Amino acid sequence: MTASVKAIEAVRHECTKGWDETPTAGRHPYTELMVEFEVKDPGPAHVCGIHYTTDMWKTREVAYAECVLLDGPNGPGGVEKWAAHVNLEFQADLLEFAVFCYDYRDGDHVREIFDNNHGELYRATPLERAEARRPSEPKYARASAPEIRPSTLTGHGAAIRVMPEPRVQPKPPAAAATGRAIPAATLVSLDAVAPYLEILMMRNFATNTWKFTVNGKVSLPGCIIASPSEPGDAETDQSYANSWVRDSALCALEAGRIDLPWSKIDLLDDFVSFSRLTQQQARNANRQGHACFFVDGTLRPWGIQADGPALRTIAVLDFFDQLSGSGRDEAKRLINDDVSYLL
């Protein structure tokens, strides 16, 4: 098997917003995002581009980025340099994005490689331009390579649109409250949607550097929140920035199975440590099977849900071989106590 793409990395980005002015269409708003990124050690069958959102991934509308090959790969082991260009027909206050590459060299197995800024994603705050933007050539010329679907990949790597047809222009975040966004799952296959969901899921994993502060409580590594949604958000009047045992177990199970562009040992070890802490907190309160905890591992007033420890046991057994030596020792204690409670 030929070696796979080694890494993908965002190099720089620019983001502006303002007004377009044309003789025919008149004056209308825009937001423009340009991301330069590199694919290291590319091969004969891969596609790359960016995933992005204008509203913190709350809607599922489909948008596209035009990608252009700037340079490379200049021989085996070289580097391809790409530019992804996004032009939106409204003024956005913030864009988040991640860079992706799908490597098709290993037959039916597609290796998915992401640069999502170590789980924190990249954030672009548009700089406002005072003068109107007038019609001109794009900053980067269109790529000479045709746009192709993964099933017809041949030869040199090429950029693709983020999602396949049909094309849907994203709406301004303010418009989302007036009507439901179109779920991506109704437009594309689950395989196409999965990379988006994986990025969203990893944002909810607390680490030593990616922390959640909720009502004065600071998250511990290994905490997995259900959602960053809080009362006052348009979607809910509930606080979901807490850790439910069964939800966290399902996320940890999935994290153990997907490909991530960094080592998962610390991530999974931290989950086991946090789970052990919450398990002991529940036992000390004579509430084994307690379902929900604050981000610092203390009990949140909630009920008993016995499926939580059961799902947690399944998850830890599933990724047990990926844990460190000390992580496995802790995992054995966690599993033994969960099984004792269940039986």
Averaged pLDDT: 76
Biggest β-sheet: strands ordered side by side in the sheet: 4-5-2-1-9
How much of the sequence lies in strands comes to 25-35%
Q: What is the helix content?
A: 10-25%
Number of strands: 14
Descriptive account of the structure:
- With 343 residues, the protein is an alpha+beta fold.
- The protein has helices spanning 190-202, 245-257, 265-284, 307-318, 325-342; strands at residues 7-22, 26-40, 46-53, 66-71, 79-88, 95-106, 109-115, 122-124, 127-128, 158-159, 213-214, 217-218, 243-244, 292-293.
Keywords:
five-stranded mixed β-sheet; 26% strand; 14 strands; alpha+beta
Strand and helix layout:
Blueprint: E1 7-22, E2 26-40, E3 46-53, E4 66-71, E5 79-88, E6 95-106, E7 109-115, E8 122-124, E9 127-128, E10 158-159, H1 190-202, E11 213-214, E12 217-218, E13 243-244, H2 245-257, H3 265-284, E14 292-293, H4 307-318, H5 325-342
Parallel strand pairs: 1-9, 3-10
Antiparallel strand pairs: 1-2, 2-5, 3-6, 4-5, 6-7, 6-8, 11-12, 13-14
